Structures are given as structure tokens and as C-alpha cells.
Amino acid sequence: MKLPARQALVCWLAGAVVSAGVRLLVLGVPASADSTGEVIGRLLAHTGLAALFTWMTVRKRTPPSSWGTFVFIYVGWYLALLVIAGIGAGWIAS
Question: Helix (H, G, I), strand (E, B), or coil: what is residue 2?
């Protein structure tokens, strides 16, 4: 497995664990099992899409991106996806 793919998988898993921890600490445990499943699904989707977009951004760089650069780009994509999802949710709710 090439370095960018390995970096994307590690960032995806680490991002999902950190995001789930922050979500549980800030908002608490969801009331039902369905809500818990939805939260986990959204977290995996957002962190996975950020990892995919980051991998697509850096996969052809020569030399390969360092871990620090990859994580920086990953966090940027993740925050962009959160903003887009938040704007979409606000637009739908209004």
C-alpha cells in the first residue's frame, strides 16, 4: 500500500475516533439506538469523505506528502465538509 493511501486510512480512523469522542463529550449519548446509528454513520461518512478528498489531492505529489502536511490538508477538508453540512442542515430546516 502506498504512503498516501496509508495516510488516508489512518486519518479516517483517527478522525472518526476523535470526532465520536468530542461528540459524546459535548452533546452526550443519543437517546435511542437509531439516533446512535445515525450519528456514527454521519461521522464515518464525513471523516471518510475528508480522507478520500485528501488522498485525491495529494496522491500524485512527488515526493509524497509528509504526515504533517497530509493531516493539515485532511483537517481542512473535514472542516469544509462540516461547514457545508451545517449550511445544508440550516437551509433545509428553515
Answer: coil
Per-residue model confidence as pLDDT tens digits over 45-69: 999 999 999 999 999 888 888 999 9
Look up residue 25 and give its three cell numbers.
Answer: 463529550
6, 40, 58, 66 from 62: Cα distances, Å? 16, 35, 9, 11
Rounded Cα distance, 45 and 12, in Å: 10
Read off the pTM: 0.84
Tell me the chain's radius of gyration from C-alpha atoms. Answer: 15
If we measure between CA atoms, which residue out of 24, 62, 20 comes closest to residue 45?
Answer: 20
- Rounded to whole angstroms, the Cα distance separating 57 from 53 reads 6
DSSP letters for 25-70: HHH-S-SSHHHHHHHHHHHHHHHHHHHHHHHHHHTT-SSPPPHHHH
